[in-house]
Write a structure and sequence with these properties.
With about 220 residues, the chain is mostly helical. It has helices at about 1-30, 35-55, 65-90, 90-110, 120-145, 150-165, 170-190, 190-200, 205-210.
Length: about 220
């Protein structure tokens, strides 16, 4: 059902474009090529800066290209007198509009559907996200190297400070993975100190529980 409605919507848009194209051609015949070019140029020059300003000040860009908006507005202004001219032709004008609409619908059905092209800004954000993901993976991989337990305690303290300062969702996910690795290493290298630290409520600085104090025996680092 959804696919059927999408097809009907595409056909309606194609038919509208066909009628609009017929209107633009009729407008050119009505006004003459020179006057039509002047009209298109004036409307384009007026709408383009306005569309660019709206796109710039808007929180979310309502359209991809200001030039496309200006060109569409110019064509619509030329289309209006052309459609009036087609209506004045009576049955002939109706037949011309119907033929144009049918032709565009057939072209839309025959031509392959274009894939949605990702905007340049979206591609840039995706590349930045991938690069940040690689940096996070590099950090996690470095923690999987044989760091000393003292270094791991320092990392744990730094992540606690980062969380207290308000990390974003992406940073919180990376910090959670880092802290998981630290917990595994704490328990593996010093299980007694690890359990004492947990029983104490897991303070932000685990070094006093996990690091050896003067006079203690050697601890796995």
């Amino acid at each position: 059902m959804r696919g059927h409605s999408a097809l009907m919507r595409r056909m309606a848009i194609a038919a509208g474009l066909g009628v609009g194209t017929a209107g633009v051609l009729a407008g050119v015949l009505l006004l003459g090529p020179l006057a039509a070019v002047i009209l298109l140029t004036v409307v384009f020059a007026l709408v383009w800066p306005l569309a660019a300003v709206i796109r710039h000040v808007s929180d979310e860009a309502p359209y991809q290209s200001s030039a496309t908006v200006a060109a569409t507005a110019a064509a619509a202004v030329l289309c209006l007198p052309g459609l009036v001219r087609l209506l004045a032709w009576g049955a002939v004008g109706f037949a011309v509009a119907l033929i144009a609409a049918t032709l565009f619908v057939l072209l839309d059905l025959v031509l392959p559907e274009r894939r949605h092209r990702t905007s340049r800004r979206r591609r840039k954000l995706e590349r930045m996200s991938e690069r940040q993901g690689f940096e996070d993976e590099a950090l996690i991989a470095s923690l999987q190297c044989p760091l000393s337990i003292e270094e791991l305690c320092g990392v744990w303290t730094e992540t606690a400070t980062q969380l207290a300062q308000g990390a974003g969702p992406r940073d919180r996910q990376a910090v959670a993975e880092v802290r998981r690795i630290c917990l595994d290493e704490f328990e593996r290298r010093n299980p007694d100190g690890f359990h004492r630290w947990l029983e104490a409520g897991a303070p932000a600085n685990p070094g006093s529980y996990l690091l050896p104090t003067p006079g203690d025996g050697p601890t796995a680092l």
